[in-house]
Amino acid sequence: MECRVGVISGDGIGPEIVAEAKKVLDKVGEKYGHTFCYEEILMGGCSIDATGEPLTKEAVAQAKASDAVLMGSIGGDTRTSPWYKLPPEKRPEAGLLALRKELNLFANLRPAYLYEELKEACPLREDIIGDGFDMMIMRELTGGLYFGARKTEETDGVVTATDTLTYNENEIRRIAKRGFDIAAKRRKKVTSVDKANVLDSSRLWRKVVDEVAQDYPDVACEHMLVDNCAMQLVRDPKQFDVILTENMFGDILSDEASMVTGSIGMLASASLNDTKFGLYEPSGGSAPDIAGKGIANPIATILSAAMMLRYTFDLDAEADAVEQAVKQVLKDGYRTIDIMPQEADKRAAVTEVGTARMGDLICDRMN
Ligand code: IPM
Ligand code: MG
Prior knowledge:
Blueprint: E1 2-10, H1 14-32, E2 35-40, H2 45-51, H3 57-65, E3 68-73, H4 92-102, E4 107-113, H5 126-129, E5 134-140, E6 150-155, E7 158-163, H6 169-184, E8 189-194, H7 200-214, E9 220-225, H8 226-235, E10 242-245, H9 247-260, E11 270-272, E12 278-280, H10 299-311, H11 316-331, E13 334-335, H12 344-348, E14 351-352, H13 355-364
Parallel strand pairs: 1-2, 1-3, 3-12, 5-10, 8-9, 8-10, 13-14
Antiparallel strand pairs: 4-5, 4-11, 6-7, 11-12
Helix pairs in contact: 1-10, 1-13, 6-7, 8-9, 10-11, 11-13
The chain binds 3-isopropylmalic acid (IPM) and magnesium ion.
Magnesium ion binds next to helix 9.
């Protein structure tokens, strides 16, 4: 198969982690007889530096012409980077939001899974961890607060900032269906997360989710308030299978879920629309503090590439092989710094490696 992959290396650790994911894809190509053709696409801070815009029309066209886009991370240090002196719509993150909207990537899948080998990196107590956990966060990605009208204005010397949270029933229905479809192939439970005790948008969310649930009699559906969910994620994460939620709640809860699974460096993601196209990116940020040091964890990006194989190219066996190789490397005791155990005796039992070595080790295990 010939696969046209747009690549947004981006800023910070982006280029380093993307290089490892490409290495792994090339290994898949070599082993299974596929060709991955990459085309670099500018987005974020590097695009601002080169073109003055975080996302150009050309970049959008390049992404649209690809079968899938693999992305690293965008953005910089909000306190020191000159990108954050620009108006909000010219900053790196605006590029990512615009790309999600342009490509209609409304369904964001973030699988949070605790690897047996990473139990030590999990900050929760052993009795809470138990046999580990495995959940899928389904985050609505093109609506809500991140896309509603916003303004900052001054009236009579007082500055007021406004953001608006809007959802229509169709936007809720299509993400809910995706959530139930995925739950039907997993442990058949959807926890829909909202703030229906306060927000109108959440009350509509709950009503539409209940309607969609009628079509999935085999999938259990429960509703949970977002503040409670934030607590339940650290109190008893095992209870979750699919967490279905709106844009901002999903943004926040997925970072929390990633930490519960050991590190944000492990959390992959797929952003999908109604076609086979997808944008695949690690859920973590550009980590400017460690950029260029060769220590960033490439696993989330590599697992995002595995999601690309699975969801865009229907290459399930290849995706399984990548995921197995990641598991094996962890089993063999290799860790990037973010997933090193805390206790000295446990640290002594594993080997700390950098970004490129981790990529090499994963490729080796695909032989
Ligand atoms: C994420 C990120 C982005 C988001 C930022 C960079 C705009 O935090 O993918 O979770 O909020 O969606
Ligand atoms: Mg986020």
